[in-house]
Amino acid sequence: MHFWKRVGFLIAVGIGLGALQGEPRNAKWEQEISAIEQREAETPPPANGIVFTGSSSIRLWKTLAEDFPHHPVVNRGFGGSQISDLIGYFDRVVVPTHPRQVVVYSGTNDISGGESAEQVLADWATLCGMIEVALPGTKIALIAAAPNPARWSQRAEQSRFNALAAAYCARNGYDFIDVWTPMLGADGTPSRDIYVDDKLHMNAAGYVMWRAIVAPYLID
């Protein structure tokens, strides 16, 4: 992005961030967010750590701390959520620990809910702008939309989002972590042995795969 256009964008997002912080939240996830806050009030997460956030694939990553023992990782996944939910809860989910890095997995629920790849990308751009304004210098990474048997019919839109997001991340200095390709089998469809029975969420083998893919992107 051209420098002055980028400055203008960040100023605009900064104004939007202030407005968002004064708006009511999506009550759908309020109980879950409150539970995270209560738990972390009792056992505070490390400051200046690496926040993993996004939807259920992050929330269900129960071995996150074990998988990255040399990094101060914080799991703040919630839902079933969409990027718009993460935007709405940004000041409660992402900001409090002042992370050195934010790793996001989100977007597939958005597409499943009827949003186009372009709409999801626009939300991703908004979220990135919010991070840059509220947390200057924080490194940003997006884990690609992952293939799964349950939503294989949505693969065209998911792939389009990945292509758009990869290009956007490259232009703006963010990391795009491709999990799509490694999660496909030899026949080009999702590997069946890395999902639980719902064919949507990953099993332990799936998270072992993600650990190997994500590890090189984490900063010290």
Automatic annotation (TrEMBL):
<dbReference type="InterPro" id="IPR051532">
    <property type="entry name" value="Ester_Hydrolysis_Enzymes"/>
</dbReference>
<dbReference type="InterPro" id="IPR036514">
    <property type="entry name" value="SGNH_hydro_sf"/>
</dbReference>
<dbReference type="GO" id="GO:0004622">
    <property type="term" value="F:phosphatidylcholine lysophospholipase activity"/>
</dbReference>
<protein>
    <submittedName>
        <fullName>SGNH/GDSL hydrolase family protein</fullName>
    </submittedName>
</protein>
<feature type="domain" description="SGNH hydrolase-type esterase">
    <location>
        <begin position="61"/>
        <end position="207"/>
    </location>
</feature>
<dbReference type="Pfam" id="PF13472">
    <property type="entry name" value="Lipase_GDSL_2"/>
</dbReference>
<dbReference type="InterPro" id="IPR013830">
    <property type="entry name" value="SGNH_hydro"/>
</dbReference>
<keyword id="KW-0378">Hydrolase</keyword>
